[in-house]
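Appendix B. Chain record.
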Amino acid sequence: MLDALQRGAQTWPAKVLFVILIISFGVFWNVADVFQGMGRGAVAKVGETEITVPEFQRAFQSQLRTVQLEDGGRLTAEQGLMLQLDRQALDTLIAQTAVRTHAERLGLALSDETIVEGVRADPDFAGPDGSFSRQGFDA
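Structure tokens predicted for this chain:
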């Protein structure tokens, strides 16, 4: 029976049918994306700034780790998708990009000295004596 199928597949009508089938898959199911570099584009675009796939993947993984630390358990990517952590990560990236873009347009920036002063004044990083603690900052 396999021999009969192999012989039938070698005929011209069978080859024409295979070509039509292959073309229909390429046209109707966008198999061409494989050859055009699917995934190279942006996940989202805020103004002129694009959020790339690697940026989104890092944000999603970070969101997964945060939930794992809060719950103390192991969370798979599929479970994260069910909890819509991917949407939360994307929303966060879009908001951060929008704020950054708007700040750049306004010419807003913080100097390194201002950031250092802010970190040193933050009570979350204070030690037992009330002053800045490097161990608290590292933790």
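Further analysis of this model is presented in Appendix C.
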